[in-house]
Amino acid sequence: MIKSMTGYGKGEYENELYRFKIEIKSVNHRYNDISIRMPRHILYLEETIKKAIKEYILRGKVDVFINLEYVNNTAVDIDVDINLARAYKIALEDLKKELGLEDNIRLNNILGVPEIIKMEKKDIDEELILDSLNKSLHIALEEINHMKVSEGKVLKKDILTKLDTIEENLNIIENRAPKIVLEYKSRLSQRIKELLDNNTLLDEDRLNNEVAFFADKSSIDEEIVRIKSHIIQFRSILDEENTVGRKLDFLIQELNREINTIGSKANDETITKQVIELKAELEKIREQIQNIE
């Protein structure tokens, strides 16, 4: 089963104290690069989070955004300094009277004093916070995994179609290859006859030797066999359960090498045209597998 490296997942979970919202985004990358943005006071959980992510995502650039909220302020202590607030109100009233102001004293005037209301977070319940984090993370990972698998199926179908096209072009080359030698022999024979006198006999042995040398030099049988073998292996890898992106990337390089060799050996317009088509399809596949995990 192939997976795309591109995906998105979101998970939310809350218990009696904490509410987690987690977003995970992944894109193409050569390695497994995980970046996490999270509240500072739970940074100690970073490695635990990365370990959980690596069980789902083996390759790609992964960005994780973690938001932690406290449910109903149950994890927050609020301390109001009534005496300070009262003293501040009296001071404002005296100032109002002294300056002859008509403005009313409002609550907002008092709340602006930092020391009147203090808010402090209670010590976190590490076991409970880990439980809610894991559950929201699991939801996000399941969602992104589903998206990656779905897109992977689309990629696989497209790659298989392109492999079929490559095989069709390769069959044209394979059928054309034997005719090149026969045509070369015919052209060479005709050329020699044109250069010789009518009374001069054609040396068939020398002609056959020259044709045999040409046939050996231009033979692409081995390249065709290897390309067919690579295509079979390509399809087999697409059905594997583990990560296959790097394997496919290696096979693409091997296929490209064999196709280039055919292009350099075969001095034939038809084969050259098919080599161009092969390279075009191969490049399309190469672009697709850049997004495979």
Describe, in plain words, how this protein is organized in 3D.
With 293 residues, the protein is of the alpha+beta class. It folds into three domains: 91 residues, Ribosomal Protein S5, domain 2 (2-Layer Sandwich); 46 residues, no CATH class; 139 residues, no CATH class. The chain contains eight helices and six strands; from the N terminus they run E-E-E-H-E-E-H-H-E-H-H-H-H-H. A hairpin with a 3-residue loop joins strand 1 and strand 2. It is rod-shaped. The mean pLDDT is 86. Pfam families: YicC-like_C, YicC-like_N. Its cofactor is a divalent metal cation. Keywords: Coiled coil, Endonuclease, Hydrolase, Nuclease. One of its GO terms (molecular function) is RNA endonuclease activity. It comes from Wansuia hejianensis.
Structural class: alpha+beta
Indicate the radius of gyration in whole angstroms.
Answer: 37 Å
Which bin fits the share of residues in helices? Answer: 55-70%
As laid out across the biggest beta sheet, the strand order is 1-2-4-3
| Quantity of strands, as a count | 6
Strand content: 15-25%
Number of helices: 8
Shape descriptor reads rod-shaped
Mean pLDDT: 86
Give me the strand/helix succession: EEEHEEHHEHHHHH
What's the structural domain tally?
3
